[in-house]
Amino acid sequence: MTGRTAGVPILRLGDVLVTGLLNELDDHSATAFTEELTERISADDARGVLIDVSRLELIDSFVARTLMELTTVARLLGARVIVAGMRPAVALTLVELGLQLTGVETALNAEQGMAALGWEQVAHVPGPSAPAALGDPGGSP
Amino acid sequence: MTADEAAVRELVSSALRERGEVVADRWVQLQLEQAALGTGISEAELREEADTLVDALGAGLRDDVPVARVVTTHRELRQAVITLSLRRARAGATPTGTSLAVLALKEALLEAVRGYTSDTGELLSAALLINRLLDAAGALSFETYVEGREEIIQRQSRQLLELSTPVVRLWDKVLAVPLIGTLDTARTQVVMENLLEAIQENESRVAIIDITGVPTVDTAVAQHLLQTVNAVRLMGADCVISGIRPPIAQTIAQLGIDLSAILTRATLADALAESLRLTGQSGPRTEGAVLR
Amino acid sequence: MTLYDDDLRALGGGPGEEPPPPSAPARIAIRAEEDLLTARHAVRGAAVEAGFGLVDQTRVVTAASELARNTYVHGGGGALTVEHLHGPRRGLRLTFEDQGPGIADLDAALADGYTTGAGLGHGLGGARRLMDEFQVCSEPGRGTRVVVTRWTRA
After folding, report:
1. Is C11 in Cβ contact with B154 (below 8 Å)?
2. Strands B168-171 and B174-180, sheet pairing
3. Least confident residue range of B21-25, B56-60, C61-65, C109-113
4. ipTM of the predicted structure?
5. How far apart are the first and last CA of chain C?
6. Shortest Cα–Cα distance, C143 to chain A (Å)
7. pLDDT score for C1
8. What mean pLDDT, rounded, does chain A reach?
9. Disulfide engineering: C130 pairs with which of B207, B276, C50, C59, CB 3.0-4.6 Å?
10. Residue B141: C-alpha distances to residues B52, B91, B254, C3 (Å)
11. Could you tell me which CATH number the domain at B3-161 has?
C-alpha cells in the first residue's frame, strides 16, 4: 500500500510495452500503475502499449477512468494504447454502467492486440480462413 | 389404534408381504391396460416402480403411525411416490393419469386382500384402510406432479429463449444472430450475453445482428441493442446491424442516438460483405484493433 | 428447489421439505481502502451463493464497488450490510451507510457525469442501472444510506 509501484510487471518487446492488470486492483494500485506506466513510456520511448485486462473480473468507474487517462497520456507521449481481452460480462456491465471507454482502442486478445501494434508474426496463426476466396471484398454481394 | 383396526392393518400388511409380487404384477397390468396412464413409461420401469412401492408400503404399515400419515412419514415410501409422480410429470402424463395410476394400486391391493378373508365386514374395513393409506399417496403424488410440471415449464421457457436466439458462425471470424419476432428486454439480454460469450469463444472479429425479422422495438430494447454494440466493441470486435425496418429506424432516431458510430447495412448479405471487408487481410482498417 | 437437475432416484427431498435457513446478514466495515476489496469479495461470494449467473454477479459486484467507494471517499467511511432475500423471490440486498456530510443535491448526484471526487461521476447513477431496486436517503450533515437489491432471474 505504501510503495510507489503497483506490483504489475511491465515488459518491453521492441518499442511495445506489454502489461496486464490483475484482478485484485485497488484504487491506490491503479493510480500507481498509471504513474509507473507513464514513466516507462517516456523512458523507453515506447510507440505502443498493450494492456491485457483478461484477468479482470470487474472494471468499475475508477479502473475505467484509469484506462482512459492512460490512453490520453500515452497518446500525448506518442504511444498507442490497446486494451485487450475484456471479458464479456465485464464489457456488458461497463456499458450498463454508462461507460463506453470512448477513445480507447480494444482487441479481442493479447495476440490480436500485438498484431495491431505491428507484431504480425506473433499473432499470425493460419486458420481455416476463407474471406479472401470470395474476392471483391466490400463489393456488392 | 383399536384391536379391530390393528387386525385389519395386519391383514393388509400380510397381503403385501406374502403376495407383494402379485400386487405389483396386477398393478403394472392395470396401468398397461389403461394406456393413458402410462404415457411413455416402459413396462420394465413400471415393474420396478411397483416393486419398490409395494415393498415400501409393507414396511410403512409396520411403523407405529396412523394409517393416513404412513405415506408422508415413511422415508422410502414417500420417496417412491415422489419418484413415480415426477417420472410421470416428466413423461408428459396428464394429472388425471397420474392420480389414476395411484388409484389402480388400491384395486390391486384390495384384490390381494380378498385372498385372505371372505368376511364382508373385514373386507370393508380393509378397503377403508387401503383408501386412507393411498389417498395420502394420491395427494402427495398430485402435489409433486404440479411442482414437477412447473419446474418443467420454467425450464422449457428458458430453453425456448435460448433456442429463439441462436448465434451462428456465418464465416471465419464472423458471427451472426438473426433475430425473429418481438424482442422484449429479457430476450434481448439473453441475446447480448450469448453473443458476447460466442465472440470470446470463437475469437470472432465481427458480430452481425440481423433484425430483418423484428417488426418493431420499444425504446428499452433499442437501448439494449445499442448497448450490445458498445459491449462488442469493448471486447475488441466490430458489430454490424442489418435489416433495420423503418419503424425501428424511427425509434432509434427518437432516442437521439448518434448513428455515425454504428455500422448498419440494409441486408444480411450486405452485412456479411462488410464483415469480410473488415476481417480481410488487405482491408484498409488496421488488423486487430477497433478505433473509435 | 430444482427438481430436475439430478437423477430422480437421487432426490432427497420433495414437497414440504423445509427451505434452507436464511443466512444471517453480514456486516462489513468500510473504514480503509483495503475494505473496498473486502467488500467486493464478500459481495461476490454472496452473489455466487444466491445463484446469480456470471453477468449478474459482475453487475452486483460492480455496483457494490461503486457504492463502497462512495461510502469511503464521500461518506468518510461507514458500513455495508449484505443480506440474502428468500421469500417468494430470491435476491441480494446491499445497504451502504455512512455518517458523512450527506448529498446536497440528490438529483444532480444521480445524473451521469456528476462528480465531486476522483471517479467518472457514474457511481450512483450507474449503480442504479446495474441493480433492480435502488433507494437512497441522505440528509446534509447526517449521512447517507443507499439500499440496492437485485433479484435472481427465474
Report:
1. no
2. antiparallel
3. C109-113
4. 0.78
5. 12
6. 23
7. 37
8. 82
9. C59
10. 15, 15, 55, 14
11. 1.10.490.10
Higher pLDDT, B3 or B118: B118
Residue A135 has pLDDT above 50, yes or no: no
Which residue from B210, B217, B265, B209 is spatially nearest to B237, judged by alpha carbons? B209
pLDDT score at A134: 34
What pLDDT score does B198 carry? 93
> Running DSSP on this structure, what letter comes out for residue A118?
T
Contacts of B11 (CB under 8 A, 6+ apart): B113, B116, B117, B122, B126
CB proximity list for C25: less than 8 A, separation 6 or greater: C81, C82, C83, C84
Give the predicted TM-score (pTM) of the model. 0.65
Q: Cell digits for A138?
A: 466490400
Phi, psi of B133 (to 5 degrees): -65, -50
φ, ψ of residue B241 in degrees (nearest 5): -105, 130
pLDDT surpasses 80 at B40:
no
Q: How do B238-242 and A105-107 pair as beta strands?
A: unpaired
Q: Examine the pLDDT at A77 and tell me if it is beyond 90.
A: yes
Question: What is the pLDDT averaged over residues A38-66?
Answer: 93
Structural domains of chain C ordered from first start: 23-151 (3.30.565.10)
Q: Is B290 on the interface with A (CB under 8 A)?
A: yes
Output the pLDDT for position C58. Answer: 95
pLDDT band per the 50, 70, 90 thresholds, residue B7 = confident
Beta strands C78-85 and C133-139 are unpaired
CB-nearest partner of B227 from A95, A123, A140:
A95
Q: Which CATH code for domain B168-279?
A: 3.30.750.24
pLDDT value of position B166: 78
Closest CB from A27, A62, A92 relative to C55? A92
C58: nearest CB among A1, A57, A62: A57
C55 chain-B contacts, CB cut-off 8 A:
193
Contact of C22 with C86, CB cutoff 8 Å: yes
Chain B positions touching A87 (Cβ under 8 A) are 200, 235
User: Which residues touch C66 (CB under 8 Å, ≥6 apart)?
Assistant: A60, A61, A97, C119, C122, C123, C124, C126, C127
- Domains of chain A: residue spans and CATH: 10-116 (3.30.750.24)
Percent of chain B residues past pLDDT 70, beyond the cut: 88
Tell me the nearest-neighbour CA distance from B198 into chain A, angstroms. Answer: 9
Q: Which residues of A27-48 are buried (b: 16+ CB within 10 A; e: fewer)?
A: bebbebbbebbbebbeeeebbb
